[in-house]
Amino acid sequence: MSTNHALPFDPIARAQHHWTEHGWDAAADGMAAVTSIMRAHQIMISKVEDALKPHGLTFSRYEVLMLLSFTKRGEMPMSKASARLQVHPTSITNAVDRLERAGLVHRVAHPDDRRTTLIRITEDGREKATVATKQLNSEVFGNIGLPTQKARQLVEILTEYRYLAGDFTEPPSER
Predict the structure, then answer these.
(1) Which of 23, 49, 78, 140 has the fewest CB atoms nearer than 10 Å to its CB?
(2) Checking DSSP bridges between strand 105-109 and strand 117-121, what pairing results, if any?
């Protein structure tokens, strides 16, 4: 996101102050945390989408390509992709439809289960994922705007939050 739209003050800190003024002290820190995460998400997704746009990808389609590229055979059942990416099956279907139209994946019948459809990455899909990853690593992931130690602390905090919220069952300390 361009800094041209930067405000001269922190609107979340101001909202937190208003929360306290209105007697909602017990919720003020939580409101600021939630709002900060939502705003950080907007900033990060904007950077990611800007990096992926030249490749004709959205982040959801990129995630599907990367998930498939990390598998041994370059394929997996659509239902498993939905579960791994923690998105609704309709979202996977939409992403696969677009990736398939672009020639980056194709659907194939499961050899042992007629009810299951596999998604298989194509060579063009692998190439697109590789090139897009290089750009994301260079423009976004390699420098998210925080020093490395702070980024690691952020990941630790968010991992603990996700664990406590029931996002996964393996305790973070055992990972």
Answers:
(1) 23
(2) antiparallel
